[in-house]
Structures are given as structure tokens and as C-alpha cells.
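Hi L.,

As promised, Exopolyphosphatase:
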Amino acid sequence: MAVTTFAAIDVGSYELELTIYEISPKKGIIQLDRLRKVIGLGKDTYDRGIISYDRVDEMCKLLHRFKAVMAEYQVDDYRACGTSAIREAENREVVLDQIKVRTGIEIDVLSNSEQRFLCYKAIAAKENEFNNIIQKGTAIAEVGSGSMQISLFDKDALVTTQNLKLGALRIYQILSRMGGTEADRKQLAQELIDNDIETFRKLFLKDRNVKNIIATGVCAMYLGKGAHTDKQRITTQEFLDFYKDLREMNEEQISEKYDIPSEFVSLVVPGAMVYKRLIEVTEAELLWLPGVRLGDGIVAEFAEQKKLIHFAHDFSRDILVAARNIAKRYMGDKEHSAILEKNVLNIFDGMKKYHGLGKRERLLLQISAILHDCGKYISMRTPGESAYNIIMSTEIIGVSHREREIIANVVKYNTMEFDYSADSVTLDKDMRIIIAKLTAILKVGNAMDRSHKQKFKDVRVSVKDQQMFITTASAENIMLEESMFSEKADFFEEVYGIRPVLKKKKGV
């Protein structure tokens, strides 16, 4: 039985962490070792906007030590990921280049949605507990160093996910720049937290019934330790009782009483304040502390991609549900979007031999169809540009920034003339080709329901002699659809060299 040794490197806002895992189809994922060291990248980024040379030097020395450990374990593969401290640094490209040149380690800078999706996968890897708990209204709350992510589940479906700049280190840094007593700073922190959580409640929580909170991240780990519990599940009242004690102590007392390392204790109170306020607004009853870290998500995704493990949970469904909820927020036409999804997926599958795209691009096309008319909520005159701005400003969990850029452009060019030279700085050649191919399919699929009356039934797609035949049945007048189809077919032929032809079944 083949065993793979894998290393995950988390370049976080507060610490660098190396975790070594062993993966096998029979035993799954087993953690062998974990090393971490506090290195305050976030202090540089959140205070000054850049990461200093001294910090880069410290990081490179530590990464060399990590490489030596990886060599000792004879690691087969690894992945290094950076989060908000690198993502938000103005000099991140220089920092990443220095690290690669000096250590040979290439760091993937995760978008926020990618980072949270990995942590979500780490939780889902605990399949029995996870699937049971999300049957009731559940919030996954990850309070990290730089920000907080709240994801809401209702009847095991992901409803929404939002990022709030309420990271424990970020709050600590803001307060450290203020004067006053410790009591004053705690009061100011509470006001800062209350404002963002209350806004989240009004916009997204509304009257949803949240029974459980799944707390993840470094703050949750130390809060669980501070609450003197080895249990993964505690009542929210148990947590609130612990919080009352915490409020009355200074950092030195907290470190001594709860055996929390001094370098982490500054994160405990801000993190606890965030969780306390979330518990109050949701009126949740249970707090689950699964103890997962970003490295656990990195290895879970690696193992899944290499087909070393299999998840029962359908993550693509979560992404699509999240997209549909975004469409709902912007008053999308549900029936039209549903038939458009079918149309574009039929065309994509029928053109499989000719477009050279895979499952992931199919998913991006499906999301584009779901969100294709969200821009009309802002402007009926310029829906394409409005949709682009909405999509680029909205997180879709599990979709990277690059993929979101593809979706936004496909939706934009659905109603605009395609510009091959546009955004040449932000879009590389491969991205522009994918955008063109998916846009061509979306334009044709959308033309098939131009009236939004779902006139076509039983759509079949076949390709022959440089023509793509879309055969369908309809007893209604389809002159509008035929006219629009012919117009959109020109761009499709331009991209693929294949002419779309709409054929109505005889006798219908």
C-alpha cells in the first residue's frame, strides 16, 4: 500500500507553521509532526502596509529550517500558502521573489475565499461529526489574525459566507495605537466588534435560526484550552462563563492561569470578544471546537486531488448554492437562470472535443450562468459592467480571485462586444482564451431564452462538419430566439471555428 508523506507550510499573519502528514487510502490522513514559530508579519502589514527586510530575513531562515525537517521526513510533496499579511502587503511581489530565490520555496498567496474554503475542507474531513452538526442551522466562524470569516449553513446547504476585518491581531494592533487604560481599550474593542457583527446580523443573519457555531483558527484553539475543556463540544453558556473570568484578568494572569504561551495571549481576549458577540446575536446553544488549522485543509485538498481520499460531502454544490444566493440577493430571474444553466452545460458537454476545457471551467461557466443578469439590479443600461463590479466585490467560497476574474469577465461580455486586448495587464493569455470560450457558449445559451419564457424543450447538441447543431422542440413562436441566436452565433464561430445551428424538431 502506497504511503505519501506531505508537508503543509502556513505563512500566517502571526506565525509560520510546518505540519508533516502521512496519507494512505486505508488510514487516511495522519499528522506526524507540527512545528511553528511566532513571526509577526501582520504587525508589519497592518501597521505600515509593507513587510520589512528584517522580517523577510527572519522568514527565510525559518523556511530553511523547515526544509531541513522536510528532508528528514523524506517528504514526497509540499505546498506553502500565504494569507492576509502577505496578501495585503504592498511589496508582496518583492517579498515572494526574495523567498523563492533564497529558499527555493514558492508560496501560493491564497485569496480569502480560497483560504476559508481550505479550512472548511479540514472541518468536512471530520465527516460524521460535520454532516450531523450542519443538519441544524450552523455558523462556521473562523477568527484568524487578520480577519474573521462567517459561513452560514441551513439544512446542510451553505447559505452565505462573509469576511469581516475582525482578526484578533488586527484588533490588537488598532488598540495598541490608542491611549487610555486597559479597560478603555477593551471597551473600544467591543464597540469596534459590535458594529461589524451587528451589520452582519442585519444584512445576512436576519431571522435565521443558528443552533451551532463551529469555531476554528488559532484563537479557537487557545480559547478551548483556556476554557479548561478537552471536549470538542461545549455549551455556549460554558464559554460565556469562561469569558466573564477572562475579562477581569490582564495578559500575564491569563497566560499563567490557562497555560497559554505569552506570545499568543495577546490574541485571546480580542478573539474571545468576537466569539462572545457572535454567540449573543445568533443565540446559538452549542460551540464545536474541531481544532483544525489551515495546514489540515491544505493536506485535505492535496489528498483529494491526488485521489488518495474521497469526501462524501459535495463541495461543488456548496459553491453553486452560494452563487444562487448571490443571484437571489440581486433579484435574478430564477426560472431563466435555471434553463440557461441547462443550455450552457449542454453546449459545453457537446463541445468537449473542441474546447479543451475541464471540470473546473465547466463549474465557472455554470456560476457565470447563475450570475449573468445580476448587474441589472444596479443598471439596466450597463448590466455587464455592473455585474463585473458586483462579482469582483463579492466572495464566492471556494473560488479563487483568478477564477472570480474569469466569471466576472464572462458575465460582462455576455452583453458587451468582446475585447481581445482588454485588461491585458491583469489577465494572462490563458485566462483571456478561457474567457472567450466560455463567453461564446454563454452568449449562445442566453439567446436560446431571450424572451425568458423557456420555450425550448429537450435540447440536444451534436457537432458535425464544422457545425454545432442544437436540436430542440417548441410549440411556440421562436422568431425572437432565432434572430438573437443567429447574431450570437457569429462570435461563437469566431472563437471555435464551428457554426452553431438551431434546429427545430419536425412535427412540433
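The first helix runs from residue 41 to 48.

Thanks again for sending the construct details.

K.
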